[in-house]
Fold this protein.
Amino acid sequence: MSTPLPFRNRIDAGRLLGAEVVEHNLPEPRIVLGLTRGGVPVAKGVAAALGAPLDVLVVRKLGVPWQPELAMGAIAGGVRTLDERLMQEIGITESELERIVDRESAEAQRREMLFRQGRPAPEIEGHTVIIVDDGLATGSSMVAAVRYVENARPAGIVVATPVGSKQAVQNLKRLVSEVICLATPEPFYAVGAWYEDFAQLSDADVQRLLEESRQHEYPTELAIS
């Protein structure tokens, strides 16, 4: 699959990804889950293309204390995935790990409450669940998301992303029904390298995108607040 890079923004990437996902004729009923925050505008385009409901999946990276962007694992719900080899190599202690897990779990709970606004978690059992992020670098956050969704007994799990490293895509193919990825450039560098506009999203942006999706409104541009 060959896709011109970079994507203009996440909305543009979501539109292109949505068109590709439709071609795969995924079984119904379907639900689309966007990883917060960056995966939500991409997932919105996929949900629009499928005519499927959109919801969020809050995943928090477990960053190395002195290099927070380096992931040593991730959490989603009560599911924790860890890179045991990395942790051993850099000497992360159990107490250090637990402090990070506690902090990120509290932030995940805050976001769940904010984005759901009292609504229950979506029905997943028996559905084809399409989990979407704006890109896959190591894939650790997506692995945690997949493990979490597995516990809800879906009919199938599909990972969909505009861009990803070949290693992350190959690793995830062993875990899910299908991985749909528009581009796997090498060398990969970072997810943001493949977007012209990769601005951070706020909580308010995510809330607005979810509300627009519930109202079936799909703007051509994403105005970052």
Observations:
- Residues 10-57+125-214 form a domain with the Rossmann fold fold (CATH 3.40.50.2020).
- The CA atoms of residues 34 and 57 lie 6 Å apart.
